[in-house]
Amino acid sequence: MSSSNQPASSPSFVFGPVPSRRLGRSLGIDLVPMKTCTYNCIYCQLGRTTHPTLERKPYIPEEPVIRQLETKLATLSSAPDFITFSGSGEPTLNSRIGDFIAEVNRLTTVPVAVLTNGSLLHHEAVREALQAADVVIPSLDAAHPSLFQLINRPHHSLSFSHVLQGLKKFRNEYAGEIWLEVMLCRGFNDDEQHVEKLRSEIEKIAPNRVHLNTVVRPPAEEFAFPLTREQMEKAVQILGGNAEILPPECPSPAAKVHGPIDREVLLLLQRRPCSLEDLSRAFGVPEKDMAAALRKLRDKGAVAYNVYNRTVFYKAGQKIGNNLSPGR
Ligand code: SF4
């Protein structure tokens, strides 16, 4: 675990609403500690995986999550567009994800989305647990095992054929929406032949939508490069059908934040590096005010930054835990 991503002393499992390019205003629920995943993707915006595992277990207590969600829903001026299981790693590693989805559905009519790498869908229990979600967003970046190893760097016991089988089985059993994400990294999985092979695998999975993405935030590895707009357009043409390029920005209006925004900014930066522009838009705060808030947080060590693609990205700093008031 990189020290900049240490969990806060009083963990907050609910964060946002954050602007999402796919989901509008998305209220996030984080079911695993930073950074617990079955993969270690070269492009991961959370950095390298510090807890690679295939072990499904509860990971976090249920009661505070539900309490935080109830409080958050009660204080928002308008309902979020989605409640999304995502955050610090792979949410289906949490063996109680089905119970959490059921609890969210009991509390609210806001639709539920699950952002997953799809690697555990070959387990019947995982496929069953996701049945009550409205949208499941799995990923598939490679059409053959060697590229899978290069890009996703999976847990050593995870086989590519199991991942593909899991995605296909889930499609057969799940009546909700599947929006498949394909992350393209220049020089790895973007050549024409490979994208054609991806298309044929995707046809077998039959997702409702295919979202093409590329590296837009600082990646775990500096050799994970983005595609140009032109290269993305070429890839989307090859994929055809229901494939589309994810827009660079979230179309939804900013979230209304009650009280000081520092805490909300830090909760977001724990899970996603953001530019000044991202943060300003996410919280509906003028850039000069957000810059002043970030300067103060940086001076306290709660926020750090790095430059990627000629843009400054802010992320959680080493002393973030000292600057988060107790979880609600
Ligand atoms: S991008 Fe997602 S699947 Fe890949 S390592 Fe990061 S959290 Fe895990």
TL;DR of this structure?
By secondary structure, this protein is an alpha/beta fold.
Label this structure with key terms.
alpha/beta, single chain, TIM Barrel, 3-stranded antiparallel beta sheet, 328 residues, binds iron/sulfur cluster
Number of helices: 10
Any ligands, ions or cofactors bound here, and which?
Answer: iron/sulfur cluster
Task: Give the full name of the CATH homologous superfamily.
Answer: Aldolase class I
Number of domains: 1
Q: Total strand count, please?
A: 13
Quick check: average pLDDT?
A: 91
CATH architecture descriptor: Alpha-Beta Barrel
At the first level of CATH, what is the class? Alpha Beta
How far apart lie the N and C ends? Answer: 25 Å
Tell me roughly what share of residues is in helical segments.
25-40%
Global shape = globular
Largest sheet: 8 strands, mixed
Structural class: alpha/beta
Q: Report the uncertain regions.
A: 1-9
Q: What radius of gyration results from the CA coordinates?
A: 19 Å
Element pattern in H and E: EEEEHEHEHEHHEHEHEHEHHEE
Oligomer: single chain
How are the secondary structure elements laid out?
Layout: E1 14-20, E2 24-29, E3 36-37, E4 51-52, H1 62-75, E5 82-85, H2 97-107, E6 112-115, H3 124-129, E7 135-137, H4 145-152, H5 160-173, E8 177-184, H6 192-205, E9 209-214, H7 229-239, E10 243-245, H8 262-271, E11 274-275, H9 276-283, H10 287-299, E12 303-308, E13 311-316
Parallel strand pairs: 2-5, 3-4, 5-6, 6-7, 7-8, 8-9, 9-10
Antiparallel strand pairs: 1-2, 11-13, 12-13
The chain binds iron/sulfur cluster.
